[in-house]
């Protein structure tokens, strides 16, 4: 056990998880690689939990941060803030939400908290619909709507939450249906559920469930849900904390795979936009965003230094078509990953799109989760010089692959080969 590990255990809560039997300290990074305190180099296929979206030590972002820090680091939302307004303008235009307003926070958890505040205030209801296997943050209110037992330390909540079918395509009572029949069954379930509730404020859903193991419904499910919600006046909140900014390759936002009935009423974002800086936020149409009848600010949301990072990062993303890169290189990577997994009996499914790929591991020949296998592959990949993540619903048995969106073809090939070696240790 390293000295830093001992010090960590002495002062950090036990429930703050660390990867690996022998945890590593990452000291610096460049591009798609990071180095630990022992000088070992790793190909980073997890990007700080999908947060280092473009690249480590991206010169455009570090320059913007340094220049802004040399002027002023912080002022708060009580003063006019040019970088905040400029980033809000760009995000409002990209969001697809008409007459959009943007409120910045410091994390995805806080963004989802704000979305819940807006929805419940607007609808004058504390009833929320959420998806099974979902994850929306670690605060008291977001834990209360998270449909994943591994991340729900309490059942107490200020909200009344009801969980809807549909977030996981290949498990549950509708798994054997065709895509069209799956959507029909989930919509019928939603209709039935609404017949038993009082007024509902909103449905919150991740277009692709992140912590849940990169699971998703067939395209169009949330559009079909939206048509039902609209009849009841219920808001749709799209949690884009992990799916936003082009990571899925095919779309800039995950909701666009379900956009046939229009954009969401509220969209939340975080992680990738700051490329490691603490940025989150909410986009909503003006009528919803402006419904609060009391003062509300964010001391650190919209900080000039984080907004400068977000502006530089978003500009780089768009100018270099990283969404297109995610589509092209991600398509190649998932093919290589599927080939590597084809001869591994523990692999139940390879799923995902763009640079957001999940590998679900089960006990061979069954649907029983296999967290030991997932942990073993995680360790073996690290030993080979590859960092990946893990997640999953009923148990943590899905490997999560989400490199920075600037990943090259040669790095994708290298990472797939390292992953194949790690899977071969099972």
Can you describe this structure?
The protein has 426 residues and is of the alpha/beta class. The chain contains 13 helices and 15 strands. 37% of the residues lie in helices and 16% in strands. Strands 4-10-9-8-7-5-6 form a seven-stranded mixed β-sheet, with helices on both faces. A four-stranded mixed β-sheet has the order 1-2-3-13. Strands 11-12-15-14 form a four-stranded antiparallel β-sheet, with helices on one face. The longest helix has 20 residues, at 322-341. The two termini are 25 Å apart.
Question: What is the radius of gyration?
Answer: 21 Å
Strand order of the largest sheet: 4-10-9-8-7-5-6
Q: Which quaternary structure do these chains form?
A: single chain
**What form results from the Cα inertia axes?**
globular
**Number of contiguous helices:** 13
Low-confidence stretches: none
Mean pLDDT: 96
Secondary-structure class:
alpha/beta
The helix content, as a percent range, equals 25-40%
Span between termini? 25 Å
- DSSP strand tally: 15
Portion of residues in beta strands equals 15-25%
Largest sheet composition = 7 strands, mixed
> Order of helices and strands, N to C?
HEEEHHHEHEHEHEHEEEHHHEEHEEEH
Which descriptors would you attach to this protein?
426 residues; alpha/beta; 7-stranded mixed beta sheet; 4-stranded mixed beta sheet; 15 strands; 16% strand; globular
